[in-house]
Amino acid sequence: MITIIPDAPENVAAFKASGEITKTDFENIVNPEVKRKVEKFEELNYLMLIDTELDQFTAGAWFEDVMLGVKNLAKWNRAAIVTDSKGIQNFTDAFSVLMPGEFKGFPKDNLYNALYWCQNGNEVEK
């Protein structure tokens, strides 16, 4: 299931993935919220907190995730993937060179910093 993170900054489409993730989650939750943010801000600041194993994403969910990227290709500004998987964090960081905008991986205990970065491009000073 995917839910909207309610405390996210207004200009960030922020989601939490837990349990099984399906195509319907993207169609009913992610895509409409992303559309609203892009229409309002003319760019996409996106955060996905992955609180489940990757094998919980169905093939349809992966397809919808890819289509989300393609549909909004020119609108990507910042995207944070929040997970404790170092592999996904590293992939996200590397993905930044292939896509417009900035992509960055964060550990789960750094969710606040990831939201702050998505909002304005800066990290919280330590």
From TrEMBL:
Q: Enumerate the Pfam families for this protein.
A: SpoIIAA-like (PF11964)
Q: Which domain of life is it from?
A: Bacteria
Q: Which residues cross the membrane?
A: none
Identify the taxonomic lineage of the organism of origin: Bacteria, Pseudomonadati, Bacteroidota, Flavobacteriia, Flavobacteriales
Q: What is this protein called?
A: STAS/SEC14 domain-containing protein
